[in-house]
Here is the input.
Amino acid sequence: MPEHAPAPATGKSAAREDRGPEPVHVLLVEDDEVIRRSVGLVLERYGYRVSTAPDGLSGLEAFREGGHDLLILDVMLPHLDGIGLCRRIRETSQAPILMMSARGDSLDVVAGLEAGADDYVVKPVDTTVLVARIRTLLRRADFTADPAAPAAQDNVRAFRDLTVDTLALEVRRDGEPVALTPTELRLLLQFVAAPGVALSRQQLLREVWDYGWEGDSRVVDLSVQRLRKKIGADHIDTVRGHGYRFRR
Amino acid sequence: MGNGPGNDAASPRAARIALRLADPRSLRWKVVAAVTLATLTMALGMGVLVHRTTETRSLGIARSNALRELGLEETRFHADRRGGETSGEPPAYYVGNELPDPLLARIAAGTGTGTGPVTWYDDRNPMRIRMWAGQMADGQPLGVSVDMTIDDLSRKALDRHMRYAALATLAVVVPTTLLAAELVLRRLRRVAGTARRIRHGELDARTGGRAGKDEIGEISAAVDHMADALQERLHNEQRFTADVAHELRTPLTGLVTAASLLPESEATDLVQGRVQVLRHLIDDLLEVSRLDTGTEQLEAYPVPLGELVTDSVRRAGVDARVDVTGEPVVRTDPRRLDRIVTNLVVNAHRHGGAPVRVTVQGTRVVVRDNGPGFPAEILEHGPQRFRTGSAERGHGHGLGLTIATGQARVIGARLELANAPDGGAIATLILPEETAAEPTDEG
Here is the structure.
């Protein structure tokens, strides 16, 4: 049981604390009606604005209408499954995606994360856990540079073909901007903060995903893989049996 | 693990093989004994037969030679009697008392019945073996002898050669039999080994089929078919458990979420409590069925053991004291280790008595409570799903320990359950010693 489970908000103010005046807009794609409605109600009770879709295709349509801050996708969906849907969404959007896997089987989980999901929960999920995961994802999406850090000249760091602006949160490769999901950005910033230092999977799991030991280190491996694809594989070395190291 | 895998691994293997060879109860020696006996019997029979035949034949020849000689000598004897003209050679016949007594007795007996010349085989002196022939001539016993010493020696040589031949045959037959028996026994041993592996849970083990159409092939095929049937049945049951748990998930998810929407009340607490129990039960069932199918993959890396255990106990939300000695680091899968520790602590808390104490030392994690201890059934047969042992151990579905044991197996650890002499259950998790070399896995 995570101890950071937030209490249900009185009224609809909780999400505002996170995101300012506009409530956070969540798109929930789930084929089981009871789950769809009850998760929707729970999220609304926590102050989120919720749209729902019962299958993959209508989920994609709903997503194209835009304006969603976070997506929750079931893996098993009619017409277009959650993994395919996730991949389609990633083509145009970096919004945080949470997969709801019915199995927790390696295949489901890995496929979802490879398709670009940021995290997964296994059904049945406690509402407190679900909300905690959503909050972590949103916090990551909402990530801003440490305001205490002076806007010094070292906020832009160059690593051969890669430049990372830790204040503007801008990543360029050979001068071209690279689109990173919040998770990938957060991961990269962890690396950039300590170049040349081997970071263990557990450390990354804790810092980026907010997990304890119960966390699945595959999410680290798969996210690092995705990050490598975007910024170039030679920037991150694998430290065998330990974790990863960013090359100076 | 030895440091010289070539030698160290080979010598116990060689010793084992030698021990197996030397085992007098082995079928191998019985087969060899039977074959040796058969060979010897045959050699003996042939030897006796050949010996007899040769003897009879050479005695027959000697007899007729002696009789012919007697005829010649008789003429000469008569000539000697009549005129004293000597032919230069000394006479080759013996007369009267010069003859050996047995021959005289035979001549005397033969004369009575009128059967003419008699013969006698004289082997009194092994250096001078003779065939005698004798008859009455002119009222005197007259006899000649043919030397048979050479003949006897050659027969003895023949006997000797036959013995050598028998030994040579044995020298060929015994090793050949051993080899042939070994081929058969190896196939039998493979069948036995397969059955043993199946017993130890290796359900994929098969004898390897290409055994031929003989009886051993038959038993191999029978064992294989039995294993197939067993595996099929087990898989069906595992699949059923997994399917049931899986099918229950979707309605349960709705139930969990919907129950969390209920307004606060005593009834809500009851419903939510039961829903939680149901949830954990189905989670555990799925975990057990995943462990059963053996498809679990290990994701191991160095983990600070003390930190992990302290964290797991804290997150399990039960009251337990944790003592860590030193700063042990183990190479393991932290999620699985977390599951084991959580299950052990929750189990100790639920079934045992407070205080629950957790000790971490080296690669050992010990969870101890002050309750009535593990029931004898669990100590004897290991944890069984849906069996909590005695009633006083309270409620619980008994999957916790099953999962802990299963997960321990996946991470290569050993879970030992025991009762303290002064009461209370002790669960000891012994993690494998971390190999000194840098870990080699990746991916």
User: Anything to note?
Assistant: Chain A touches chain B at residues 1, 3, 32, 34-35, 38-39, 41-42, 45, 102-104, 106, 123-127, 200-202, 212-218, 238, 240-243 (CB under 8 Å). Chain A has two domains: 14-141, 153-246.
